[in-house]
Amino acid sequence: MQIIHISAECYPVAKVGGLADVVGALPKYQNELGMKSKVIMPFYDNSFTQNNKFKKVFAGTLQLGSDSLPFTIKSLPKKQLGFELFLVDIPKLLHTSFVYSDDDTRRFMAFQIAVMQYMLQLKKKPDIVHCHDHHTGLIPFMMSHADAYEDFRQTPSVFTIHNAQYQGWFSHDQVNLIPKFPLSKIGLLDWDNSINPLATAIKCAWRVTTVSPSYMEELKSEANGLQSLITSESDKCVGILNGIDTSVWNTETDPFLVKNYSETTVLSGKKANKKWLCDEFKLNAENPLFVFIGRLVGEKGSDLFPQVFKKALQNPKLSILLLGSGNKDTEKELLKVRKQFPKNYNTFIGYNEALSHKMYAGADFLLMPSRVEPCGLNQMYALRYGTVPVVSKVGGLIDTVVDLNENGFGIIHTEITVTQIVEAINRAVEFYKKDTVFRKNRKTIMKIDHSWHLSAQKYSNLYNSLKV
User: Fold this and answer.
1) Residue 267 needs a FRET pair 20 to 30 A away by CA distance; which of 2, 158, 326, 343 works?
2) What does this gene product do (predicted)?
């Protein structure tokens, strides 16, 4: 079975969020199951593309409204990433140092058309076309209804919603960007008087998946305006929990760690990584160390951090380290907190992959007070590295973290408020004091299997159900 994944991101080529981690891992595990899984994504001008050699496999011209744009498809051999990678290079639109911009309607429309043009000329058509998030949401529509792509009418399409908050809306004035289709189908593009790629994909894809079962249920009541659509299409919708790539996230082999460790050496391994972090960021290594790794946006609850940290750090017997960027006001406030608590709080504004790995390894607790968390990978990385997640009761966090009070291994707060987050931190501090129990819990959580093996098999079963 041949599967083509289409995405705006893929780790390690280009990463903004969890979408990249999923698309960079799922095809690899599918190939291990005997499938032929490939990835097509935009060509960005970044360190990955600058440091690798690509083979040009196709050249063509696409029509974007009144503009004719030349494009090329470049490939990277399967052996490098565990799957074949194809990059769509469109000068001035996709050949950029950034992934997202203010011109994304044109950029990703051109990308999707180029993908369709490339697939059209393949001698062996894919058995499944798997699209990810709104940047690829018009492909199921084009496969089913665009005049030029009639060859794909019987090709099953799967669409995965990684985050329903972002839908790719654009005005009907730009409908001419979409390849010619029967005007009788215009209603499939519309939602709330605009063209909505996410809504279109939900309507047109053969199957719709989300990245966790709980998130699928949440979308029926809160999906940024698409609740009724998802409810009406629920018969073809399923939640499949994401996994993590355990070949990348492996404490025994991770090249970013100061000291590698296993379940049997977790005490010394985490101690060494914690010492490095505390030395680097001038924190007290004797304190329990809480970390946050992610985007500083409202979805992640990070707007509450300045108030949360000021209250929590009244207790000098804990330390907090933050890695992230996003809302500029939040960034400024967090830097002010650093001045107020220089001995037990620090922050790194930006993103650093190597530092994030050290933080998962060196921390005692991971903070995830998310308002929206479709699946969440950070809590799975933390568990894999023996770090206890302190999370809100939402989305995929519900499916992956069980509270200590329910014979579990993590700490959950039900509301995203300053008071409840601080209370959860205080619970964690008390748990940390129970040295023997805390150490045992570390070993327990490292054994939890959140690899892609099970999820890849569930996708295989889904694909097989669509065979025509």
Assistant:
1) 343
2) Synthesizes alpha-1,4-glucan chains using ADP-glucose.
**Residues 238-246: what's their mean pLDDT?**
94
The per-residue pLDDT for range 314-333, each reduced to its tens digit, is 999 999 999 999 999 999 99
Does one domain contain both 196 and 336? no
pLDDT bucket at 308, cuts 50 / 70 / 90: very high
Question: How confident is the model over 58-68, as pLDDT tens digits?
Answer: 999 999 999 99
Residue 260 lies in a domain: no
Query: In this predicted structure, what is the pLDDT of residue 468?
Result: 61
Residue 344 within any structural domain of the chain: yes
On whether both 324 and 208 belong to a single domain, the answer is no
Query: Same structural domain for residues 15 and 112?
Result: yes
Q: Are residues 232 and 135 in the same domain?
A: yes
Whether residues 438 and 459 share a domain: the answer is no
Q: Chain-wide mean pLDDT for the chain? A: 96
CB 76 within 8 A of CB 40: no
pLDDT digits (tens, 9 = 90+) for 372-397: 999 999 999 999 999 999 999 999 99
Query: Is position 354 within any domain?
Result: yes
311 is in an annotated binding site: no
Domain that holds residue 460: 2-244+453-465
Q: What tokens does 371 get?
A: 């308002």
Chain mean position to CA 371? 16
CATH code of residue 399: 3.40.50.2000
For residue 261, tell me if it sits in a domain. Answer: no
Summarize the confidence of residues 92-118 as an average pLDDT. Answer: 95
d(CA 187, CA 179): 16
| Statement to judge: residues 221 and 308 lie in one domain | no
Mean predicted confidence (pLDDT) in 285-311: 97
